[in-house]
Amino acid sequence: MKTNQTHHINLTPPKGTLWLTADHHFGHGGSIGQSQRPFRDVAEMDRMLIEAWNSVVRPGDTVIHAGDFEWGHTPERTAAIFGSLRGKKHLVIGNHDRPRVTSLPWESVQERLTVHAGGRRIVCDHYPMRAWPGSFRGVLHVHGHTHGSLPGTSQSCDVGVDVWGYAPARVEDVIARMEATTDLPEERLRAADREAEDDVAE
Ligand SMILES: [Fe+2]
């Protein structure tokens, strides 16, 4: 186990596809109603989420999980689910992730992970941020937690399974979605407004 319990790591993923995901809430019956998931019960939800994951992720791929992996199972069941999921898995800790989740054999475990992929730098956190390291210079941000309730911007995106068909999202697809979003991050919008006001004043 290569567990890294520091606050933050930088990651350059090895060859293979990089996937971003969050908010599986394996075992959490409440998430079916709260997030209007189309599953009859926890058993069906867990089964479908595992199938969706393994239908896209290949064994050598890298997966960054932006938190809230599980809620409500025993440590044994949690470990069995984890073991059935393909890929080299990194965890960005979510508010639901107890020791039975953080102690699983992830490649790394931390509160923030910055990944270099698709020609971009991407800051991964569980919670969505209004500004993040390098955001003003175009660094991207992905998060979980909001289960699709918060609109994305040209530089930030919810990568939770409720937003991406219950499966991990390919990093190139996440970047493309941000590039297709015209709404700027708040701090850049305000800076643009200030520049426009300065132009008028000159
Ligand atoms: Fe969540």
Key structural traits:
Purple Acid Phosphatase, chain A, domain 2; 20% strand; alpha/beta; binds fe (ii) ion; 202 residues; 10 strands; five-stranded mixed beta sheet
Looking at this structure, what is the CATH superfamily?
A: Metallo-dependent phosphatases
In total, the number of strands is 10
Tally the structural domains: 1
Order of helices and strands: EEHHEHEHEEEEEEHH
Helix content: 25-40%
- N-to-C terminal Cα separation, in Å? 60 Å
The strands making up the biggest β-sheet line up spatially as: 1-6-7-8-9
CATH topology, which one? Purple Acid Phosphatase, chain A, domain 2
The proportion of strand residues reads 15-25%
Gyration radius, to the nearest Å?
18 Å
Biggest sheet details: 5 strands, mixed
CATH architecture: 4-Layer Sandwich
Shape assignment:
globular
Q: Which residue ranges are poorly predicted, with pLDDT under 50 across at least 5 consecutive positions?
A: none
CATH class: Alpha Beta
Tally of DSSP helical segments: 6
Structural class: alpha/beta
Description:
The chain is an alpha/beta fold and 202 residues long. The protein has one domain (8-201): Purple Acid Phosphatase, chain A, domain 2 (4-Layer Sandwich), CATH 3.60.21.10. The chain is 29% helix and 20% strand. It has helices spanning 30-34, 42-56, 75-84, 99-102, 171-179, 186-201; strands spanning 8-11, 18-21, 62-65, 88-92, 108-110, 112-117, 120-125, 140-143, 156-158, 169-170. The strands form 2 sheets. It has a 5-stranded mixed beta sheet, with helices on one face. Helix 4 links the parallel strand 4 and strand 5. It is globular. The N and C termini lie far apart (60 Å). The chain binds fe (ii) ion. Residues 23, 25, 68, 94, 144-145 line the site of fe (ii) ion.
